[in-house]
């Protein structure tokens, strides 16, 4: 039986409860231990939105606007910096999603949080992924109120496509101190890499452990100088 059929036939409520239980075992971000003026890190939150499109379980992504100064034109999840007035990290993720895509927080059924991750080698910026399901039936991208100052395009990718090894590779970054390997989802419609790919990989291992079997294995360079850049390699799921 193909992965698409297995995803469709899995009981939604059972999958929700299993995923929530797994998320509860993850240690979330510890932030706001002191007043904002004494924070040693910059904190942000993203929403990792599960949805259905024509009855098919999918993930919702955004393509960042080319008007932005940083990371423009890259694939991301909706999100942004924690404001001092935000009630908590979940509020931040929901607020930013509403600002970027016009999705009412009331439609977002929050399932839990993935572990917080730094966005750079300096670890000065920490991002907390919040997992939620968009309720109210199939998601219609045409009904979203996209803020084009921040988002070029909103798009979805079926979970079956993300779980298919034929659509996954790795990018190996080499430097003098800490070489590392990251997954890459080759699309369509857009190549998903970097921080967004890491979050996607972690989510899929929790959400669909029997379907998503891709493993990210780091292999040291055999020869040559180390460079501070990455190159893509097609993965084999081992």
TrEMBL record:
PANTHER family, alphabetized: MITOCHONDRIAL COENZYME A DIPHOSPHATASE NUDT8 (PTHR12992:SF11), NUDIX HYDROLASE (PTHR12992)
UniProt source species: Elysia marginata
Coiled-coil residue windows: none
Start-end of Basic and acidic residues biased regions: 7-17
Keywords recorded for this protein, A-Z: Hydrolase, Magnesium, Manganese, Membrane, Metal-binding, Transmembrane, Transmembrane helix
Keyword set includes Manganese: yes
Pfam family membership, one: NUDIX
Residues in Nudix hydrolase domain copies: 38-186
Cofactor(s) for this UniProt protein: Mg(2+); Mn(2+)
Family the entry assigns: Belongs to the Nudix hydrolase family. PCD1 subfamily.
Any GO BP annotation: nucleoside diphosphate metabolic process
Residues that span the membrane, as ranges: 192-212
PROSITE patterns, per database record: NUDIX, NUDIX_COA
Protein name: Nucleoside diphosphate-linked moiety X motif 8, mitochondrial
Entry's Gene Ontology molecular function annotations: coenzyme A diphosphatase activity; magnesium ion binding; manganese ion binding
